[in-house]
Amino acid sequence: MYRFLLSRQWVILTLIALLLIPTMIRLGFWQMHRYEERTARNDLVADALGAEPVPVERLTAPGKKITTDERYRTVTAKGRFDTDDEVVVRRRTNADDAVGYHVLTPFVLDDGKVLLVNRGWIPADSPSQTDFPEIPAPPRGEITVTGRMMPDETTAASGIKDLEGLPDRQVMLINSEQQAERLGAPVLGGYVVLTAPEPASGTPQLIGRPGNEDAALNFAYAIQWWLFSAAVPVGWWFLVRREARERTAAGDGAPEPAEAEPAAV
């Protein structure tokens, strides 16, 4: 009844089903790992944003690498902005995906160390890629700033190529080691995304808080792949039973061979 399973067509179909089952199970586990990773990142971001602000020099120092646990921590710093050495970071987008610049301004602390402060986003209004854009000035004199701690940007981590030969006062990456070499001053590791004080003119646009990654979607995909893997053998058996029934019905409906007439005497 099931000899048809040895046919070329059914052998291929069965092999495909046997390959699909472990593949779908592995895809489900991969999605579950993604769910766990995203959930862990969301928890880290929530914990960092919810922590009490601390002085910036409690988390960083010249040459220090910002750790995962320190990322997004709220820090404060007292000093003054140095707009003479201000630079812009090219090819950055805002919440509406408009392309412009991030404004990176050195913030000189009372002890002479420099903190890099990303003051926010400005549009690339000029058609020229070489002109330095007009940037509203920050508050003058000694002030206290608040922001989110961020690690140095690298090509490996961000995927942004660090181009050479850029126009004066334009950079591709926010990197404290590069800026320390340019400024000839001790620059604290990492940088700060400004949250306060807000610009009086609304420009530069402050960079919004990091949002939660949609971990639930990965969980749903994992369940979906595992359901698919369970459906493969069920579907295969359904096809086998249907083929067997059709072959049986075809056999039952075949005309019986005619009886031989008796030979004439």
What's this model, at a glance?
With 265 residues, this protein is of the alpha/beta class. The protein is built from 4 helices and 8 strands; from the N terminus they run αββββββαβαβα. It folds into 2 domains: 3-42 and 215-248; 60-196, no CATH class.
Q: What's the N-to-C terminus distance?
A: 44 Å
Number of domains: 2
Bin the strand percentage.
15-25%
Question: Uncertain runs with pLDDT below 50, 5 residues or more?
Answer: 260-265
**Pattern of helices and strands:** HEEEEEEHEHEH
| Largest beta sheet: strand ordering | 2-4-5-8-6
Major β-sheet annotation: 5 strands, mixed, barrel
The average pLDDT is 89
Overall SS class: alpha/beta
Radius of gyration: 33 Å
Number of DSSP strand runs:
8
**Tally of helical segments:** 4
Q: Provide the helix percentage.
A: 25-40%
Shape: elongated
Question: What this model shows, in words?
Answer:
By secondary structure, this protein is of the alpha/beta class. The protein has 2 domains: 3-42 and 215-248; 60-196, no CATH class. It is built from 4 helices and 8 strands, in the order H-E-E-E-E-E-E-H-E-H-E-H. It has helices at 8-50, 155-158, 176-183, 215-252; strands spanning 54-55, 74-81, 87-93, 99-109, 114-123, 143-150, 170-171, 191-196. A 5-stranded mixed barrel has the order 2-4-5-8-6. A hairpin with a 5-residue loop joins strand 3 and strand 4. Helix 1 (8-50) packs antiparallel against helix 4 (215-252). It is elongated and about 100 Å long. The two termini are 44 Å apart. The model is unreliable at 260-265 (pLDDT under 50).
